[in-house]
Design goal:
Length: about 300
């Protein structure tokens, strides 16, 4: 059975609160605290697990926040392989400003990884990945990490016959030089490769097809907020619209999209259906408060709405 293995060398413990207002030099009274495991790959694994996929989260953890991260993942029954590090797992702090209906996000840099810790991280990929698996690199790299860390991970995954998926702008150039199975970028990230703002959908479709033609990726996915998403492969370009929902928070929506997309592909869905399922997972997460991910029942309702 195809497994979705996620890689998170720089995870976070997400902490979210709500404030009546946010102003400088004021004591801000906060309420409704929430704490969740976070970081790109962690959230992708959580999403896949909720959607019934066969998944594994490979991540680093250290210190008090690292212990809390491991415990919170265990509560959600997410299969995991933790790589201990001497540094402290970072905290990501989110504040919802009720007065102005917006969010403030504070992301700490995280802990550096030693050469030995990086080697153990790559060994975990080598030992876990099997032919046909998706190995998903998502989120930022730790401070001072080798710029080719994702390229090294891609090489290891490919050596095992797995399909390497990159959902990160960190270490992007080296990873594309190595070649990846799939690259996912959002409406803000694609400029790191294209070098300029592109119009949706025409110019972005051409950009995605060009990366496939050059052989840097086999599948290029762009999620473009309220416009929807597209995937370019050698077989053509596939699209799916976004779901119109009452949004509460955008935290984790992109990771949920990736989790939904890969879950659908792992069970054999078509590219179009997989994109639609990813958009439903993203839409359902936008309906959730703070740093919480989607309720699977909401994903099911959104998918059912397309068949009405």
């Amino acid at each position: 059975m195809t497994r979705i293995i996620t890689l998170t060398p720089n995870p976070a413990l997400d902490y979210a609160v709500t404030a009546d207002f946010v102003e400088p030099n004021r004591k801000l009274r906060c309420r409704d605290p929430q704490m969740h495991p976070g970081g790109g790959g962690i959230n992708v694994a959580r999403s896949c697990s909720r959607l019934g996929a066969h998944t594994l989260a490979i991540f680093t953890a250290g210190g008090v926040y690292g212990d809390a991260l491991v415990k919170s993942l265990a509560i959600e029954n997410v299969p995991m392989r933790m790589i201990p590090i001497t540094g402290e797992t970072r905290l990501a702090f989110h504040v919802k400003n009720d007065r102005d209906d917006n969010e403030y996000r504070f992301n700490l840099p995280g802990a550096k990884m030693s050469e030995d810790e990086i080697a153990r991280f790559l060994t975990a990929i080598r030992e876990e990945a099997e032919p046909g698996d998706f190995v998903v690199a998502s989120g930022s790299l730790p401070p001072d990490a080798p710029p080719d860390l994702w390229a090294q991970a891609a090489r290891v995954a490919k050596d095992q016959g797995a399909r390497f998926v990159l959902d990160s702008i960190s270490g992007l150039d080296a990873a594309l030089s190595e070649g990846v199975y799939m690259l996912r970028q959002n409406e803000h990230e694609y400029e790191a490769v294209s070098g300029k703002k592109l119009t949706w959908p025409g110019e972005i479709e051409a950009y995605a097809k060009d990366l496939v033609t050059k052989g840097q990726v086999q599948a290029m996915v762009v999620s473009h907020g309220g416009d929807g998403s597209l995937m370019a492969t050698k077989d053509g370009v596939f699209t799916a619209p976004s779901f119109k929902v009452r949004a509460s928070s955008a935290v984790g929506a992109g990771d949920s999209f990736v989790g939904g997309l890969l879950t659908a592909l792992s069970r054999g869905d078509s590219e179009t259906e997989a994109l639609k399922f990813g958009m439903a997972a993203a839409g359902a997460t936008r309906m959730s408060e703070g740093t919480a991910l989607f309720d699977p029942a909401d994903v099911k309702k959104l998918m059912a709405s397309t068949k009405a």
